[in-house]
Amino acid sequence: NAGVTQTPKFRVLKTGQSMTLLCAQDMNHEYMYWYRQDPGMGLRLIHYSVGEGTTAKGEVPDGYNVSRLKKQNFLLGLESAAPSQTSVYFCASSYGEALSTEAFFGQGTRLTVV
Amino acid sequence: QQPVQSPQAVILREGEDAVINCSSSKALYSVHWYRQKHGEAPVFLMILLKGGEQKGHEKISASFNEKKQQSSLYLTASQLSYSGTYFCGTEISNFGNEKLTFGTGTRLTIIP
Fold it and tell me: A28, A42, A74, A81: least surrounded by Cβ within 10 Å?
């Protein structure tokens, strides 16, 4: 099993450009998450989804949009990138539902906005 | 709504013990613990569900005090491989719309 796969692993954007980060999981998980990790800030939740076709805002959603058209994929979009969005982005997934289960993380995407 | 972790960083000699604390201002459904090595993704250690249970994983164990909305991670007889940043993640019951929120992390350094 591949687990959770993030694409791309590295990217450099110019201010104002747009891009989409792809997260794919092959474990039939219901819940999927997007986090950003910055020094001293821990993992901050951007958006999450509790099932296909659903999305919800996390702690730091501004400047990002997401879509979950297929159960296995969770896309994170930056419409107009800003230097403040320079970060390492992690996607995670879990079985979710009523029983709390472990989250599996992708390997991360290092994004630099210049 | 991020849980609060303490301490922010700790340095230990191999064989010493450590305790990492996690607290929340809201009633918790579960607490997760993860460890992240530099440049890698976080890796799951254990989950504790409400009910005050304690879990163990070799020399790493944790407790969950539901009433105090706190959890503690215990590392005994630390090994060099325990070095990394430890994160607690918390879930607040929300009728099928739970979200997993992480603390700011505790950097643990084990020296020989």
Answer: A28
